[in-house]
User: Fold this.
Amino acid sequence: MRMNRTTICLDEPILARVRARAQRMQKTLKEAIAELLLLGLAKVEKIEKEVPSLSLLKLGKERADISSRTRLYESWEEKV
Assistant:
């Protein structure tokens, strides 16, 4: 599966839940986040700039070093 390059910034409590879910599902963080997005349990809240090419995920950082940045919407929080 080919994905576009995106930076996803998660707060530490949300990141901990995603890590726990990934462990339960025996998947990587990238696979767990992609599955949440595909199932509609999470969605991108905001895209600050059009992103050129989800092969690289930078997780748990307050601010990304690149200008194209998204935040994961927390609507799935109760389901994780």
Q: What stands out?
A: The helical segments are 12-24, 29-39. Residues 12-24 form the longest helix (13 residues). The chain has a mean pLDDT of 60. The chain is about 30% helix and 10% strand.
